[in-house]
Amino acid sequence: MIRSWSIITAIIGYCRRDSRRPSTRTTPPTRAIISNRVSSSRGRDDRMNTEAFKMFKSIVGAENVSQDPAVLDSYTYQWMGEMTGDTTRFGPYRPVCVALPSSTEEVQAIVRACNRFGLKVKAFSTGWGLYSAPGGEGVVQLDLRRMNRLIEINERDMYALVEPYVIWAQLQAEAMRKGLNCVTIGAGSSTSALANCTSVMGVANNNVSMGYNERNVLGVEWVLPDGEILRLGAPGSGNSWISGDGPGPSLRGVMRGAFGALGGMGVFTKCAVRLYQWGGPAELESVNILSMDERIVDYPENVKLIAPYFNDRTSLEQAVAKIGESEIAYSVGLLERGLLTLGLGKTNAESAEMRENLHPVIPKHIFTVLLVANSRSELMFQAKTIDAILQETGGKPFEMVEQENFRDIITLLLVKGGSVPARGVFSPTGSFSPILCGFFATRGTLVKAMDDSEEIKRKHIESGLLGDDMGEGGWGPLILDHGHSEYFENETLFDPQVPDSIQALVDVTTETNESLAKKKLIIPFLSQVKVARAQKKSAHDTIAPHMNTDYRHLQRKFKQVFDPNDTADSCNYIDAGK
């Protein structure tokens, strides 16, 4: 066991070294593997040291470790794999084996074995995209699905203690029964709460009332890349899980920063998630999960949906910022009309018809605000506050969206995630990828990025290689930090079976990010991860050159202190060897 202070002391000592001195980093042992780039034949992959495989079996049991080619290939088959897998969804690298640990101790033992045998380790829980797949050769894939316990909901201190395979929907359902709630991110309520809080960014419509999950992670149990266990915050002193910081300097920034290391800094086995007060019902029961037929059984009296629209994006952005400042909204945002209408039909033909009919009717510059109050009088106050903001910014309520059928599906979208986004992004062409994914805007920069992405995407839609959402496939705007930070991403539909369509996706993502860089705007992190992986580079090695300072110098030093043998697969994070 190691504690925070010993880690901090090691970091300070390392970072003070003269960078001109030769590195004293431990040299990894010779890897007992050969190249395991996936071949077209996908034959049996027995390239890992036999002794290492026997050790893994002794740790997790023979039934929980596999080198079966079909099993291994299933872990390379990931959403967005087309960008790295030679136009197939299979990524270019097959893991040398897959292990399913059931406890922190088993994770620790596997990580130590990987250090011993010169293997890399890549953990994931629910998995969501190419970020989850190995980024190189000799990687042991840790599937954490057996670690699925919702250990505790602490009502008094308002947090939940979870293992990696607890999903947001599960946590939200249990929390709501106790008058509490959590952030359910746009990637879906079926994604891992722990992964989002510790390892990868994820934004949500309800960030406006419950914050960004970077701030909502409390105590953490962390298996470091060298096999040591570190407990951050209160659990490191044996005093519950209520705090993720101290004693002394916090390691939250080293652990995840704004975007997360995506597996590049070890394995997280437990974390406490901040919960918030929920004024709605204990259960929000719905029926008929098919798009426009979806209904809330009893719409709560203390909940109200408002859909303001504006003449231009600048006015819309001003209203978004003021709503954030007022601190009254539970949830904000919407899909732009091109994508929203594609998600309303039961079939693609029906959705296309709805798009043609509804696109001219729904205003271009529109979003929704969901109010959730503890009383009728509080709801009236919130609604009057919204009215005052709209009068000041020139917004008007769009009453069609407030009708029962639209109201119910959008309320479910803003509270739970809903079915409309999934239909809209997957059904028309088979897949999608967001551009601007990871674009956290300050006031004024949001509009520039929205205009940029729409213009660039329209050009590629006109080529016929991307799905036609009329250039209006965005999600947002979302509010963070009481209106001081805003978020928007532009979902882009492509055909994963057509190589030219895949290339068009790569091109539109690259062009958008390059355009933002020229304007001195932030480069969206998760969008750039995909571009970097397509170029066989790590994300930060393609982002840092466009920043005011090259932060990689210290980032690599942290990586080398925590991971002296370069054991954690950091393909989505930083190349530790440069």
Automatic annotation (TrEMBL):
Keyword Flavoprotein found: yes
Keywords: FAD, Flavoprotein
GO MF term list: D-lactate dehydrogenase (cytochrome) activity; D-lactate dehydrogenase (NAD+) activity; FAD binding
UniProt KW Iron-sulfur keyword: no
Protein name (Swiss-Prot/TrEMBL): FAD-binding oxidoreductase
InterPro entries the record matches: FAD-bd_PCMH (IPR016166), FAD-bd_PCMH-like_sf (IPR036318), FAD-bd_PCMH_sub1 (IPR016167), FAD-bd_PCMH_sub2 (IPR016169), Oxid_FAD_bind_N (IPR006094)
Domain FAD-binding PCMH-type: 90-278
Entry's Gene Ontology BP terms: lactate catabolic process
Short name of one Pfam family: FAD_binding_4
Residues passing through the membrane, by range: none
Source species: Abyssobacteria bacterium (strain SURF_5)
